[in-house]
Every structure is written in C-alpha cells, then in structure tokens.
Design a protein that fits this description.
This protein is mainly α. The protein has a domain of 49 residues. It contains ten helices and two strands, in the order E-E-H-H-H-H-H-H-H-H-H-H. It has a two-stranded antiparallel sheet. The chain is extended and about 115 Å long. The chain starts with a strand and ends with a helix. The N terminus is likely disordered.
Length: 242
C-alpha cells in the first residue's frame, strides 16, 4: 500500500503501525549536540565550513506556480506605475482561466450577505412562515448520558430569612448623643472673623495660576482677532476680485 505526498508529489511506501507510532512519539528532551564538549563542536564547525557534505541534486516533481509580482516588489514600486496599472486593470482587466475546484463543495445555505441584502418584506414573510409552520428538524441525537442528580440530595437550598419573613417595619428612637445634651445656647454676639487675605498675596501657587489664566485670556483674544482679520480679508478679496 502506498500514499501520495503533497509536498514533493512523489510516491512513498506507507509506514506500518509500528513505524507510524514511532514517528508520532513526542520527544521533549534537548538535542544531543547541546551536551557535547566545546572542542567537538568546534571541530564539527570547521569540518562543515571547509569540507561541507555534498548532497545529491534536488529533484522537483511538483509543478511550479506563477505567483506574479511579490508583495515586497509591489510595495517598492513608484506611485506612477501603480496608477497606470490600476487604470489598465479598469480599462482592460486580465482574463483569468476558469477556476478548477478539486474539493467537493458543501451546501451552507444562504450566505449572511445575501440575507442582509433582502428587502424588509422578504424577512417579514420569512418570519411569519417560520412562526406559522416552523421547519421540523430531526430529533437530537445525544451521545452522552444525562446526569440524574446535579445537586446531591443531602444538600438543602434555603432562601434568605429576610425574603421569607414579612412584617411591619419598626423604627426605634435614637438615643441622644452626649455632645448634643451638653451643648448650651449663648446669646452673646460672636466676634466677627477678620477678612481673609487675598489668595494672590498669601499663596504663590494661586498667584501663578491667576497669572497663567490672565495670559491665556490675552492669547485667546489675540488669536480671535487674527482669525477675524483673515475672514474680513478673504471676504473683501472675494468681492474685490469679482
């Protein structure tokens, strides 16, 4: 028995069950050359450099595919070549040979793009048809056995007591706090606090902030004036040229 390789398009003898199992064995150990001494690795490096192993000529049995211009070469093209190429593709597009399908097509039904392109009354009729006479599907074939008891019988699920007990709400009076009881009312006039000094003179950070705000307002007025002057100039120039 033989099988065909897609990579080289050649015929090889099919491996037996023992050889197939040996080829699929997962080896996670490091390579043998990792633990070899330094002098051996140096000797092998010199041997591969001065006396490389000669392999037979490579024989390609597969048919090469013309992929056209590579993506790297296409990106490096100047802009005028891409413009002329696009115009040529629009005026006289390239005639390609018919597509040869080697696989068996699968019926996936109506595509989602085609469903979205329908008019609203088509979807309305389809929904009414599905509601009146729905499509009968075959019975579901379950390959796994259902679990008889998801929750053990020894478990008891009880709701919260606040959700079960229903009664009137009782509001108990609050006890007076000691600071409220010891507070006395004084009818004598309280001294007026002195006025707070200006923030700009007391806090240097506030002074810097006020200065920045003042400068930003000045810059805003300057920019607004420049924009208004440009608009007036454009309007006057348009009427003057006409």
């Amino acid at each position: 028995m033989t099988y065909r390789s897609n990579a080289a398009e050649a015929w090889y003898p099919a491996p037996g069950p023992v050889a197939l199992e040996a080829s699929l064995t997962l080896d996670l150990l490091p390579p043998h050359g990792l633990t070899q001494p330094l002098w051996r690795s140096l000797a092998e490096g010199f041997r591969h450099t001065f006396f490389p192993e000669r392999f037979p000529a490579l024989q390609l049995t597969s048919r090469p595919v013309n992929v056209g211009l590579l993506l790297s070469d296409r990106v490096s093209l100047p802009w005028f070549r891409t413009v002329f190429t696009n115009i040529g593709d629009v005026v006289s597009p390239e005639t390609l040979p018919p597509l040869e399908l080697e696989s068996r097509p699968v019926d996936v039904g109506e595509l989602i793009t085609d469903q979205l392109s329908h008019f609203w009354w088509a979807s309305l009729l389809r929904n009414l048809a599905d509601r009146v006479s729905p499509e009968r599907l075959p019975a579901l074939d379950l390959t796994s056995e259902p679990i008889p008891d998801i929750l053990p019988k020894s478990w008891i699920l009880l709701p919260l007591w606040s959700e079960v007990v229903d009664g009137p709400k009782v509001f108990y009076p609050e006890e007076p706090r000691p600071e409220d009881a010891a507070r006395t009312i004084s009818l004598q006039p309280q001294p007026v606090a002195p006025p707070i000094a200006d923030a700009a003179t007391s806090d240097p950070t506030a002074a810097d902030l006020l200065r920045d705000i003042r400068r930003s307002r000045i810059r805003q007025r300057i920019w607004i004036g420049l924009v208004a002057a440009q608009v007036v100039y454009l309007v006057v120039a348009a009427f003057w040229l006409n």
